[in-house]
Write a structure and sequence with these properties.
KANL3/Tex30_Abhydrolase, TEX30 protein, NSL3/Tex30, alpha/beta, Rossmann fold, about 220 residues, 8-stranded mixed sheet, AB_hydrolase_fold
Length: about 220
């Protein structure tokens, strides 16, 4: 289902992947610095989640400014929260690369802004290829938002990601106060390409990991 989400005086293009049965939980998903919501990995994950009963809303927001992307992401969260069509108990925010930085930033801002209001609605964060540092610039880590987050966080990263060195991410994660998990895709680069494996094969691994983590966390909340 295609929708236009109001954002300032503009609209963001977005697509709902809707499960057959009425969903209780949703995932809001966005792309990295390049590309848009039709990036194959996002399409694949959205279809997988919807087929397993999770609503997925993916949106396009061009612009390379993280603050701008964060504002757009916030607008999408508000839109879904107030949606009459889908009454959800909660959502997970998810993004690829720069999109995951924006998602992390939204969670920090909402937890600071509203105290408890959004805490219950946002259930967790999924970071696909989180860009912890620029290539070859390991001294400057983009970890400030991660260290403030309290909700569960899943990282899915390639062990050969040139923007997220394995030891550095493990170091940051060990300092995080949130419940967290890293799933390493062996030998994958920042684009999740692995020599000798098809994209579909890698995506299947990512999709299964993301879904099983979502399920664990929803169950944890509602045991």
């Amino acid at each position: 289902v295609k929708v236009k989400i109001p954002f300032g005086n503009k609209y963001l293009d977005a697509i709902f992947s809707v499960p057959e049965k009425k969903p209780t939980y949703g995932v809001i998903l966005t792309h990295g610095a390049g590309g848009d919501m039709n990036f194959p990995h996002l399409v694949s994950l959205a279809a997988y989640l919807a087929s397993h009963g999770v609503l997925c809303l993916r949106f396009t927001c061009k612009g390379l400014n993280v603050a701008y992307r964060t504002k757009a992401f916030k607008a999408v969260v508000e839109y879904l929260k107030l949606s009459d069509d889908y009454k959800l108990s909660g959502v997970f925010l998810a993004g690829r690369s720069m999109g995951s930085r924006a998602a992390a930033s939204v969670i920090c801002q909402l937890s600071q802004d509203d105290g408890d209001d959004d805490e219950g609605f946002i259930q967790g964060l999924v970071c696909l290829s989180y860009p912890l540092h620029r290539p070859k610039l390991q001294s400057k880590l983009r970890d400030e938002d991660l260290l403030l987050i309290r909700c569960p966080v899943l990282f899915v990263s390639g062990s050969a990601d040139e923007m997220c060195e394995k030891q550095l991410l493990e170091g940051v994660v060990s300092k995080m106060k949130a419940p967290k998990k890293i799933h390493w895709i062996d030998k994958a680069n920042h684009g999740m390409a692995v020599k000798g494996r098809t994209t579909d094969d890698v995506m299947e691994e990512i999709n299964v990991q993301v879904f099983s983590w979502l399920r664990e966390n929803v169950q944890l909340e509602h045991k």
